[in-house]
Amino acid sequence: DAALTSAAAGDGSKIRAMYDGFYYQDAGFEDLRNTFEASVAISCVDDADRTPVGDLAQVAPRLHTFFAPDQLCARWPARASETSALVSDGGTPTLIIGATKDPASPFAGVLATARESGNARLITVEGNRHTSYLGVDCVTHLVDAYLIDLTDPGDTMCPAGSTISE
C-alpha cells in the first residue's frame, strides 16, 4: 500500500525499489540482470506453437495482448529450435528436480522428461517453488550427496514443509 500511495502522490521510488528487487537490479546481482530477457528468449526458441498476433484477441478476449503469453513470442524473429528425443546411454542417471505446483515449469512436463530420459532419478518437491536446489534443504542434501559422494537418491519426495534456507 505504501508504494502505491507514494506513487499516487508522485513519488515512484518505492515502486522502482520493488522492480529493482524483482528484476535483480540491486547491487550484488549483476550477473542476473538479464534474467527476464533470457527467459523470454529461451521460451520463444523452445516453443514452436506460436499464436499469430492477429489471433490473440480471439484466443484470449479478456486478456490485454500485452499480457498474453504468446505476445512476446509472436513477434520473435528466430524460429523455434527443433526438439529431439532424450536418449540415455544407460550409464549415470540424470537427476531431475521438480515441484508439484511450480508456476513456471508444469510438473506434468517434469514427469514426462523423467520418463522419456529412460534413466533418471526424480526428486519431487511438494509445493509451489520454481527452484529448489540451495533453497530446500531436502533437495540440497540429496543433490550434494549425488554429485559429491555419488549416492543415488532414487526417486524421492521432499514433502511440503521441508526446511527452506534462503
Topology:
Elements: H1 2-8, H2 13-22, H3 35-46, H4 56-59, H5 69-74, E1 94-99, H6 107-117, E2 120-125, H7 137-149, E3 156-158
Parallel strand pairs: 1-2, 2-3
Structure, described:
By secondary structure, the chain is mostly helical. It folds into 2 domains: 2-74, no CATH class; 94-158, no CATH class. The chain is 38% helix and 9% strand. The chain has 7 helices and 3 strands; from the N terminus they run H-H-H-H-H-E-H-E-H-E. It has a 3-stranded parallel sheet with strand order 1-2-3, with helices on both faces. Strand 2, helix 7 and strand 3 (156-158) form a beta-alpha-beta unit. The longest helix is centred in the C-terminal third of the chain and has 13 residues, at 137-149. The mean pLDDT is 79.
Task: Put the structure in a nutshell.
The chain is mainly alpha-helical. The chain has helices at about 1-10, 15-20, 35-45, 55-60, 70-75, 105-115, 135-150; strands at about 95-100, 120-125, 155-160.
Task: Name its key features.
166 residues, mainly alpha, 2 domains, three-stranded parallel β-sheet, 7 helices, extended
Low-confidence region ranges = none
User: Radius of gyration, Cα only, in angstroms?
Assistant: 20 Å
Tell how many strands the DSSP assignment holds: 3
**Whole-number mean pLDDT:** 79
Oligomer type: single chain
Helical fraction:
25-40%
Q: How many angstroms separate the termini?
A: 25 Å
SS field, number of helical segments: 7
Strand order of the largest sheet: 1-2-3
Q: How many domains, as an integer? A: 2
Binned strand content: 5-15%
Q: What structural class do helix, strand and pairing data support?
A: mainly alpha
- What's the main sheet like? 3 strands, parallel
Order of helices and strands: HHHHHEHEHE
Shape: extended
